[in-house]
Each structure stands twice: as structure tokens, then as C-alpha cells.
Amino acid sequence: MIRIARLLAFALSMIALPAAAQDKPAAAPQPEPMRIVLTRSAEPCEPDCREWLAAQGAITKDTPAELRRAIGELNGRKVPLLVYSTGGTVEAAIAMGELVRKSGLDVAVARTVFSQREPALGTIDERSPLCSSACTLLLAGGQRRIIPPQSRIGVHQQTIVETETTTVRDYRVVRGRRELVDERTETRTVKQEQATGEIDAKMRRYLDAMGLDRSFIEVTVSTPADTMRYLKPDEMRATTIATEIGPASLAFSGLRASQAPDAPAGFNAAPVLPATLVAPSTPVGSVELGSHRGGTLRLALSVGEGRYQQTAALQFHLFVGQAALPTRLRTVTITLPGSPLIVASNEDGSAPEGPMTAEIQREFLCRLTDRTSVFLRVDPPAEDSNPASWQRTGTAAEVLRLPALRTALCR
Questions:
Q1: What band does 385 get if pLDDT is binned at 50, 70 and 90?
Q2: What does R_g of the chain's alpha carbons equal in angstroms?
Q3: Mean pLDDT of the chain
Q4: What is d(CA 38, CA 350) in angstroms, rounded to the nearest whole number?
């Protein structure tokens, strides 16, 4: 048999690596192309339900058009863009970032869990946020770039991918003549570890235009293409890929993680007075969530000092009977009418049973009524072998123990 081969094309991409150990090479299956969907909260929230653009999957050459369509359908409204992606094509990610900045959208890193596709309803999962490789270029376009501290923000050198397409024809010789028996196409992907200087320069120009510190591109190009470097929260701040380190719910509020409530836009223009609560932590009661390991699971609530004079820290612990449960990487999400989500978490690896904490304006809590409807959800860590959530719906008096909370907090 005789084979005839022909090289057809090559393409440039930033190869997205899977969530693996820091700086360790690994292979990943091809992810699904990115879908961008206007999503409405599936949690009890009527009539003021939050909406966002959920962008999840691999960035391809067709994704900028998908983003342009989604933004056009907003008809001038500004909603946050929540991204979860392992990366994709460099030039497409840059085009998307430029469109996001032009549209004045905020970007947060979080995964959307859909409960319904059309119309899209979903909830926000912040247990293991991911934005790596070319996704960071899309993230850079955000007016605000909100990154939860537990996020995996991965960077590495861009990679040239050559796709060789070969036409294979099989023949047989019959009575001295060749007859075509079969014809098929075979493809092979070959990675080269260094991209062109032209693309490297384009990335630098783009990141400069987005206002990022030069250290971000330096960290990116200094990380070999067959590895992935995941930035720590202090590196996210130092490289300015994050304008704020905090829960994705900040994207639905004008309150920045580094700003005191009611402070001027600069946030650093004047010193902020510390909170004035006398006790560092005051228990206010607990709420039962259901059965667990042969006992009753209980969420205990305390209130402590906030970082600012106008804020308080809500603190939550989990117990079965009198035995404390680990809270490391768990989250408590509280939904109130007309309010951004309240998300409490414990990211302190040295205190696996420490409190899940959220900071909130004291004035807002003091304005709640006992009959205000509350939806509370406790999510386990992403790596939990039984990833079930516990939920409780009721009034503020029942779920938040508001009378006791008001006594401890409102003066």
C-alpha cells in the first residue's frame, strides 16, 4: 500500500493545564468550548434576584463572538461576568478582555452550577474557583477583578500548537493498475515550548493597556510551558491581577473588600477606625440543619468585631452534639431579600475547626426585622467524598437568631 501525506495548518494557543500540584506538568482532556449565558439566581430571592453572565469552558476563536452576543443582549445593563476556565486561545482571550473593559464589566472567578438551562437558573460555587492560562487574559479586562482567596489562578508561558493534518490514501494493485481502496484524514498535535516574540509583545501591550503591573507578565513568561504556577493571594495582589481578594459576591455590591462601608471612592484617602464591639466574640444561638453521622447537625452563630467601625464579623461553627466538625474550606451562604449574598468561609489551614467568618455592615443587620425571609446553605469542601449541602429556610428570628444578634450588635 502507498500513503501520501500533506501538512495543512498550525494554530497558536495557550495550553490549559489541569488543576495539579504547583509547578507540576500534567495532561488534561480537551475541555468543552466556553458557553456564556445570562444566569438568574435559583435561590429564593424574588423579586430582586441577582443576575450574572456565566462564562465556563475553553476559550476558542469563536468565543469573542459569543461574548459580544451575550453583552449585546444586556441592552446596556451591567452585570458581573463570572469566569471558570482552564484557558484556551491567546488572541481570543485578549479580544474578550478588551470587550469586557470597553463594556465596563466587573469579573469574578467562580463556577456556576446550573439547575435549569433555559431560561438559565443557577447558584454560585466558590469552593474551588479556577482561571488559568489564557483565562487570566480575559480576567485582566475586568473593571474590578474579584478573586476568592482559595482560587487557582494559574500562569505559564504561551505555547505554539502545530496541528498536522494528513490525508492517507490506501491503494491496491490489480492487474497492473492502482485502485483506491480507502481515503481518510489523520491529525496530530505537536507542542512547541516557546511562542513567537510577536505574540509575547502583544500580551505585554495588552496587559499594559489594562493597567496591570509588569510583574504579572514577568511571572507568566518565566514559568515553563509544561508546568503551571498557581498564584498565592499575596501574589494576586502584588501582580494586580486581583483588584480585590474576597468572595465573588462582592461583584454584586459596590462595597470593595479593602474599603470601609460609606468610605470615599479612594478607600485609602482616610484612616478607618476599628470596630467598637466590646467582646471579641459573643454567642447568639444556633440552628439545626438536619441529621449527620447519627446525630443532629447544628450551626452555631456568634458575632465579633469587624475590621471597620461600621462592620461586624458573623462567625459560624458546626457541631454534632458537642463535637465540633472541621470547617476548613466550607462556606456558609446567606440570602436576604434585596441584599448581596453573605458568604462566610474558613480559609485558615492552621485552624481547621475555626470559625467561618463573613464581614457585614452592622447598620444593615440592625435594620432587619424578625420576619425577614432568610435562605441559608452550608457547602462542604470541593474534595469532600459526599458533597451534599445543608439548607435551611425561615425567618431572620429563626435562622439568624435575630433578637439575640440585635442585643449583641445594635446599640
A1: low
A2: 25
A3: 79
A4: 39
Angstrom distance (rounded) from CA 126 to CA 348: 16
pLDDT in tens, 348-360: 667 888 888 887 7
Domains of the chain with bracketed CATH: 11-158+195-252 (3.90.226.10), 281-409 (2.60.40)
Three-state SS at 225: coil
Regarding pTM above 0.90, the answer is no
Query: Cα–Cα–Cα angle for 128, 388, 282, nearest 5°?
Result: 80
Give the number of C-alpha atoms closer than 13 A to the C-alpha of residue 189, restricted to the C-beta side: 9
Q: Cα–Cα distance between 165 and 238 in angstroms, integer? A: 43
21 CB-near residues (< 8 Å, 6+ apart): none
Q: Burial, 379: exposed, middle or buried (Cβ in 10 Å; 0-12, 13-18, 19+)?
A: buried
Record the cell numbers describing residue 212, joined without a space.
496591570
Q: How confident is the model at residue 8 (pLDDT cuts 50, 70, 90)?
A: very low
**Ordered alpha helix ranges (H), 304-370:** 362-367
Q: How far apart are the first and last CA of the chain?
A: 90
**Span 181-206, pLDDT tens digits:** 888 877 654 444 344 567 778 888 99
User: Shortest CA distance to 301 belongs to which of 382, 409, 388?
Assistant: 409
